[in-house]
C-alpha cells in the first residue's frame, strides 16, 4: 500500500471513529419523552450491594418547568411493584430553581428482570427497556446512558 493511500485511509477511519464517538456522547437517553413528566433522564447507574442492587437515576428538569414536590415519585417494575426512592438529591445553579434530580432506589434481583418506569409529576419515564439482570463486570458498577440495558 502506498503512503498517500494509507494516509487517506487512516484519516477516513479517524473521522468515522470521531463521528461515532460524538454520536454516542450526544445522543439522548431516550428519543421520545413524556412531556407531563417535566424531566428527561440523563443516565442510570446500577451498583451491586451483596445480593441487592442500588439504582441511581439522574434527571434533568425541562427548562421552564418545575418538579412538583407534592406528587410522589415511584419506580415501577415489570411485575407492577412500586418502589419509593431511598434517597433524593436536588441540584440547582447558585440557588435558582431545581435543574437536576437524583433518585436512589434499593432493588431486589427480581426487580431487574424486566423494564423499569419512573412515575414522576404527571407522567412516566422509561428507565430501562431491557430484560434480565445487567452484566456489571468486576467493579459491580455500571453507568448507562441509554434505556437499552
SSE string, helices as H and strands as E: HEEEEEEEEE
The first-to-last residue Cα distance is 42 Å
Q: Give the helix proportion (percent range).
A: 10-25%
Q: Please outline the major beta sheet.
A: 5 strands, antiparallel
| Number of separate domains | 2
Number of strands: 9
Approximate strand percentage: 35-45%
Would you tell me the structural class of the helices and strands?
A: alpha+beta
Question: Quick summary of this structure?
Answer:
The protein has 149 residues and is of the alpha+beta class.
What do these coordinates show?
The mean pLDDT is 90. A hairpin with a 5-residue loop joins strand 5 (87-92) and strand 6 (98-107). The chain has 2 domains: 1-28; 35-144, Immunoglobulin-like (Sandwich). Helices cover 16% and strands 38% of the residues. The longest helix is centred in the N-terminal third of the chain and has 24 residues, at 3-26. It is globular. The chain is of the alpha+beta class and 149 residues long. It has a 5-stranded antiparallel β-sheet, with no helix packed on it. The chain has a 4-stranded antiparallel β-sheet with strand order 4-3-7-8, with no helix packed on it. The protein has one helix at 3-26; strands at 39-49, 52-61, 74-76, 82-83, 87-92, 98-107, 116-120, 123-128, 141-144. The chain contains 1 helix and 9 strands, in the order αβββββββββ.
Amino acid at each position: 500500500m502506498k503512503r498517500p493511500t494509507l494516509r487517506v485511509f487512516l484519516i477516513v477511519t479517524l473521522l468515522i471513529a470521531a463521528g461515532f464517538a460524538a454520536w454516542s456522547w450526544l445522543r439522548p437517553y431516550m428519543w421520545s419523552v413524556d412531556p407531563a413528566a417535566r424531566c428527561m433522564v440523563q443516565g442510570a447507574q446500577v451498583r451491586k450491594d451483596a445480593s441487592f442492587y442500588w439504582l441511581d437515576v439522574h434527571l434533568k428538569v425541562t427548562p421552564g418547568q418545575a418538579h412538583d414536590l407534592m406528587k410522589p415519585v415511584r419506580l415501577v417494575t415489570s411485575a407492577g411493584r412500586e418502589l419509593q426512592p431511598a434517597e433524593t438529591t436536588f441540584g440547582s445553579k447558585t440557588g435558582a430553581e431545581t435543574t437536576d434530580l437524583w433518585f436512589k432506589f434499593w432493588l431486589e434481583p427480581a426487580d431487574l428482570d424486566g423494564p423499569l418506569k419512573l412515575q414522576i409529576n404527571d407522567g412516566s419515564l422509561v428507565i430501562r427497556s431491557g430484560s434480565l439482570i445487567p452484566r456489571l463486570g468486576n467493579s459491580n458498577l455500571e453507568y448507562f446512558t441509554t434505556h437499552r440495558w
